[in-house]
Structure formats: structure tokens, C-alpha cells
Amino acid sequence: MPKYPSTLSPIKLKPEQHQALKRVAEIEQTSIGTIVRKAISDYLEKRGISLSSEQ
Predict the structure, then answer these.
(1) Cα gap 32→23, rounded to integer Å
(2) R_g over Cα of the chain
(3) Per-residue pLDDT of the chain (55 residues; tens, 9 = 90+)
(4) How far apart are CA 13 and CA 37, in angstroms?
(5) Nearest to 25, CA basis, from 12, 13, 38
(6) Alpha-carbon distances of 29 from 19, 24, 32, 35, rounded to whole Å
């Protein structure tokens, strides 16, 4: 069960993007979803958008 409420947001990836994310997730022993959420958080933070509910 997730630690926080979430919304499912399907995204389309190129096959090579998905394979690269899968390899990184395996190396880092995490999920693709975790990597994508972190990338989105970093993107928003760089633009001055703070997510106060993020843990």
C-alpha cells in the first residue's frame, strides 16, 4: 500500500526510454515509478514549485 495518496497518470515512453529506466531501476533496486516521481519533483523544484504535501 502506498505511503501517500496518489493519482495514476499513464505516460507514453519510447521503448528505449522504458528499457533504460528499467535498467536503472534494477541497478538502484527501486521502481520505475519512484524514478519518474523523483524526476518530476526535481523538474518542478527547478521551476520554483514546492510540493508541501510531498514526503
Answers:
(1) 9
(2) 13
(3) 567 778 999 999 999 999 999 999 999 999 999 999 999 999 999 999 988 755 4
(4) 15
(5) 38
(6) 15, 8, 10, 11
* pTM across the whole model: 0.79
Q: Are the beta carbons of 41 and 52 closer than 8 angstroms? A: no
Residue 15 burial (C-beta neighbours within 10 Å; 0-12, 13-18, 19+): exposed
Side chain identity, residue 7: T
Cα-based angle 18, 28, 21 (whole degrees, multiple of 5): 10
By three-state DSSP, how is residue 44 classified? helix
Residue 29 and residue 12: Cα distance in Å, rounded?
23
